[in-house]
Amino acid sequence: MPKVSLYTVGCKLNQYETELIAQKMIDLGFERVDWAERADIYIINSCSVTLKAAADSRRKLFAAKRSAPDAKVVITGCYAQIQPELLDGMPDVDLVVSNDNKDKIISMISQFYPEMRADQYENGNPALRSLYKHSRALIKIQDGCNQKCSYCVIPLGRGEERSRDFRDIIEEIRLVSSNQYKEAILTGVHIGRYKFEGNNLTSLLSRILDETDIERIRLSSVEVNEISDELIKLCAENNRICPHFHIPLQSGSDRILRSMNRPYRTERYKAVIERLKSKVANSMVGADIIVGFPGEEDDDFGKTMEFVDNSKIDYLHVFSYSDHPRARSFNFDRKVAGNTIKDRNKILTDLGHRKWNEFLESQLKRELPVLFEKRFTKDSGLLTGLSDNYIRVECSGGAESFNTIQKVRPKEIIDGHIRGELKQ
Ligand code: SF4
Question: What is the rounded distance in angstroms from the CA atom of residue 8 to the CA atom of residue 77?
């Protein structure tokens, strides 16, 4: 039986699509092995959002060919879509498959395996049954983005917005639920713009609540302009929807937001998250912020610090701006010096840690519903999992708790997570 090994660089959407490719390969008779193992074919689902992600994707290509020189090496994903000219003809690459052709990857791979019955997948994608070593199911609901933020190349990699048929999404969630997954994470490039036959994100969520028995539904990143009052109301009234909201901010300076081509200003962001936090019990709000965007002065950075400090944001993902040759901001002048970007990243990250600890403190009196993963922590041998509001929680317990949702009484905060004990 030929062996296939897959590696994902980048976002949850890529992870979902890797699983779908893996499922098709398994159905065609391949054995899936870990990345570290020797395989007959390696598939790298790449990312090109940052230069670092692109470099990581390239490193995986070299590593695959080095560990098995006779194996076939296939690269797909955003790097293959945005900069194929850098990959075509590389001696370490046997096949480059753009995102546009991802649905056809099996028939393209079949050139290496003439006996493969690839035709069964020519007419689209099956529902995803399970995800390798994942305790939570990623469910793709949407792809593409029309927004065109000036620093972002994702629209080049993912194209125009399009949404999946809600019937397919529901069928897939029913399937993963029947395969013992307790949590579905709705994912896409711009999920707040979900639109299919008159359904938006809120009505999709209502359908999932009504038509599936999945115990938990989590939203991946949602843009602030798409958090409507009806969405907040639905989340407030249904504890199957996780009270965890990742809402990109990117800057606390309106001048920089304008230059980034972000379609909101800080006042709106503040108002929306205050409404959300006041209505949805125990909700946690996370935000992405880019530091060192071209033209970001000390005063702009100061505004970001002040905004975050006084806001209801609970955690931060801080990114250092890096130029991408295909992004519009590549041609912006007044670039910020590398050491200034590094310093700003550290200062803002420290603030993010303080906010996160404040949030953890606020949760110590609450019993946290935790979905335990199918593993113990390496160092302490404890159960580990995530609460509904995305806190990493550890506690003593046995393997019978794997893949169950149980209440944990918090005891202490250790290194950004909570240790507690199972409620008996
Ligand atoms: S909303 Fe902006 S940052 Fe997000 S994918 Fe679209 S263009 Fe990129």
Answer: 9
Amino acid at site 131: L
Q: Is the CB of 152 inside a 6 Å radius of any atom of ligand 1?
A: yes
How far is Cα 21 from Cα 42, in angstroms, rounded to an integer? 12
Mean pLDDT of the chain: 94
Neighbouring C-alpha atoms within 13 Å toward the C-beta of 277: 16
The CATH number of the domain holding residue 351 is: 3.30.750.200
pLDDT digits (tens, 9 = 90+) for 291-349: 999 999 999 999 999 999 999 999 999 999 999 999 999 999 999 999 999 999 999 99
Q: Is the CB of 190 under 6 A from ligand 1?
A: yes
**Best probe residue, ligand 1, of 48, 78, 145 (max atoms within 8 Å of C-beta):** 145
pLDDT digits (tens, 9 = 90+) for 183-218: 999 999 999 999 999 999 999 999 999 999 999 999
Report how far ligand 1's centroid is from the alpha carbon of 222 (Å).
Answer: 11
Which structural domain range is residue 84 located in?
3-121
269 and 173 inside one domain: no
CATH number for the domain that contains residue 147: 3.30.750.210
71 close to ligand 1 (CB < 6 Angstrom) = no
Same domain, 288 and 262: yes
Q: How far is the CA of 189 from the centre of ligand 1 (A)?
A: 7
Centroid of ligand 1 to alpha carbon of 28 (angstroms) = 36
Q: DSSP assignment, residue 330?
A: G
pLDDT in tens, 73-110: 999 999 999 988 888 888 889 999 999 999 889 889 98
Q: Is 154 in the pocket of ligand 1 (CB under 6 A)?
A: yes
Of 225, 242, 259, the one marking the end of a domain is 242
The domain tally of the chain equals: 4
Vertex 84 angle, CA 83 and 87, to 5°: 110
CB of residue 263 inside a 6 A radius of ligand 1: no
d(CA 140, CA 137) in angstroms, rounded, equals 10
- The CATH number given to whatever domain includes residue 90 is 3.40.50.2300
Q: What is the Rg, in whole angstroms, of the alpha carbon atoms belonging to the chain?
A: 22
* Residues 353 and 409 grouped into a single domain: no
Phi-psi region of 135 (alpha: psi -120 to 50; beta: other; left: phi over 0): alpha
Do both 67 and 147 map to the same domain?
Answer: no
CA of 98 to the centre of ligand 1 (A): 19
* 233 and 311 together in one domain: no
Q: What is the pLDDT of residue 113?
A: 87
